[in-house]
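Here is an idea for our session: we take a single protein and study its fold together. Which protein we use is up to you, so please pick one and set it down. Once you have written the record down, we can walk along the chain together:
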Amino acid sequence: MSVLAGIDLAEIFGLSMPALELVLRGSAIYWFLFAIFRLLIRRDVGSVGIADLLIVVLVADAAQNGMAGEYKSVTDGIVLISTLVAWNMLLDWLSFRFRIFRRLLEPQPLRLVKDGQLLLRNMRREFISEDELWAQLRQEGVDRLDQVKAVYLEADGNFSVIRKED
């Protein structure tokens, strides 16, 4: 008896919906989540890039759906994953190649302290409390604000502390 008896290869490897629809669905989800991560969760991603985190989550979900049968075929999952990876690669290339894309796609450092003065508006914008900022300053050996020229919240969520010259 054949191992393939009763298995419909056309159902496993055929597309259950148009490839363009899969590309559009993948693109719409990618851009929606990218905007959410970029605008709301900037500092919580640590040293992993937003696009990197996004692609891991989306590819994992798309692969799971393709493997578990949520889609009617494996090819659906492959097309969707390829779309997500292609968007990620294109954004990385554009950011590397063109400064204007880098400015649009990667958040600029946000100044939190200027010449020993807290910039409370910027701190509120990123939900950074004074206690949280002071914890970062203490890790850098700073115990008074007058020792600080500037503090920045970097794109990767880390703090950069620039001390005043003695």
